[in-house]
Design brief:
With 204 residues, the protein is an alpha+beta fold. Helix content is 51%, strand content 9%. The protein contains nine helices and four strands; from the N terminus they run E-H-E-H-E-E-H-H-H-H-H-H-H. Glutathione is lined by residues 12, 18-19, 62-64, 75-76, 110. This is GST C-terminal domain-containing protein. One of its GO terms (biological process) is glutathione metabolic process.
Length: 204
């Protein structure tokens, strides 16, 4: 994939929110042009977009979804891995053990954001989530980022999990709490100083 090929991304939160955020950050970092299509979640997505995707033969009826060369791809982590491969493994470690570490980190980040979504959009009790669950996630991720000589999960080279974890850290309910976790602070600083992301992170 060259930098001039357009990816279309479809997601149900605006800007860099939720699961669209890691995909956008990775494409921004790589300097890849893409079109972001925001889909309104409560009416447009369930009543118009989902049925259309299914009718058109795309069985994965959740967002985010990307289109590339008139094909559709779903699943946040699979999309990140796929795009990294298209970018000549730019964000995938060469070492298989490290790749597994990056995958595990992404998988755990997906669990974390779903726990937050559950509190923010289903139980509507973010305070309770912050009191009962947040510390466990922050400690877990600080530990994950302490293992390799960072600032990134796999060491000094960024990989796709780092975009995902950064987006989860920047959720309003999380960001003021990361200051006590040195490895998470180091990750945030590293992401924020990447040349192609400096303007983007101001929007988060
Ligand atoms: N495993 C999927 C989960 C995607 C997901 O749950 N997306 C939500 C929006 S954040 C959605 O489309 N929900 C609609 C539904 O479950 O019907 C991924 O990682 O992309």
């Amino acid at each position: 994939m060259t930098d001039s090929i357009a990816v279309s991304l479809y997601y149900i939160l605006p800007e860099y929110g939720g699961l669209g955020g890691p995909i956008r950050l990775m494409l921004d970092d790589a300097g890849v042009f893409y079109v972001f299509n925001y889909i309104e979640y409560y009416e447009e997505f369930p009543n118009k977009v989902k049925p259309r995707w299914i009718e058109e033969g795309h069985p994965f009826d959740c967002a985010p979804m990307i289109e590339l060369y008139e094909k559709r791809y779903s699943g946040t982590q699979p999309i990140l891995r796929f795009l990294s491969k298209k970018l000549n493994n730019k964000y995938t470690p060469d070492d298989l053990d490290l790749e597994q570490y990056v995958d595990a980190t992404t998988d755990y980040a997906a669990d974390w954001i779903q726990a937050y979504f559950n509190a923010a959009y289903r139980t509507l009790n973010v305070k309770e989530y912050q009191q009962n669950d947040l510390k466990r996630y922050l400690e877990r991720f600080d530990r994950i980022y302490s293992v390799h000589e960072g600032p990134y999960a796999a060491g000094q080279k960024i990989s796709y999990c780092d975009f995902f974890v950064y987006i989860v850290l920047m959720v309003d309910a999380h960001k003021e709490y990361i200051k006590d976790y040195p490895y998470l602070v180091a990750l945030a600083k590293a992401i924020e100083s990447r040349p192609n992301l400096q303007n983007v992170v101001k929007q988060l």
